[in-house]
Specification:
Strand content: under 5%
Structural class: mainly alpha
Number of strands: 0
Order of helices and strands: HHHHHHHHHH
CATH topology of the largest domain: Tetracycline Repressor, domain 2
Shape: elongated
Number of helices: 10
Largest sheet: none
CATH class of the largest domain: Mainly Alpha
Distance between the termini: 55 Å
Helix content: over 70%
Number of domains: 2
Length: 192
């Protein structure tokens, strides 16, 4: 239950410990982890968990939102270290890796799909905006074709990452993403 008042240091530590324990549980494949197990892993009482998250779904939603927020800080960092086209290439691969994280959380995420939570729509918007930032930088540098939008590229990646049900999908998804990236560079007017 969010409060407009900042959390005390101990409450903030407990909240972070809960989020970390839940993330570890979900990513390790323990998608059915009960809140009692998560609280125990975090080293807090179950009441502490419920003071921060009213339901298990609220906890799952916050773990996923935090993953997406962290992912979407990458473009600025990548652009500060790499040329725009290389920053885009690296971010596309991060999105494939994010899909692997999503696979680890799939069962847990299904529990919030049945709610009216805006978490997925917000995630798509943030990821599309991150892609727009990289595409715009690449187009301005003349290393990526102009006229491709973040939402369109995100849909293409969604199709690629939709292969998650097959064995070895991630290696194949990385190969297809490399082809997609080559297509984004094809026909780009090179800056002189």
């Amino acid at each position: 239950m969010p409060s407009s008042r900042p959390l005390r240091a101990d409450a903030r530590r407990n909240r972070e410990a809960l989020l970390s324990a839940a993330r570890e549980a979900f990513l390790s494949g323990d998608t059915d982890a009960h809140v009692e197990q998560i609280a125990r892993r975090a080293g807090v009482a179950i009441g502490t968990l419920y003071r921060h998250f009213e339901t298990r779904e609220a906890l799952v939603e916050e773990v996923y939102r935090k993953e997406v927020d962290e992912l979407c800080t990458a473009p600025a960092k990548l652009l500060s270290r790499h040329a725009p086209d290389e920053a885009l290439r690296r971010f596309l691969l991060l999105l494939v890796d994010h899909a692997a994280v999503g696979k680890g959380m799939a069962v847990a995420l299904e529990s919030i799909m049945a709610t009216d939570s805006p978490v997925f729509e917000n995630a798509r918007t943030h990821m599309a905006n991150a892609l727009d930032q990289l595409l715009d930088a690449g187009a301005a540098a003349g290393t990526v074709r102009d006229g491709v939008s973040g939402p369109t590229l995100l849909r293409a990646l969604g199709g690629i990452c939709g292969m998650r049900a097959t064995e070895g999908w991630q290696a194949e998804a990385r190969q297809i993403t490399a082809l997609l990236f080559d297509g984004l560079r094809y026909g780009a007017p090179r800056a002189t």
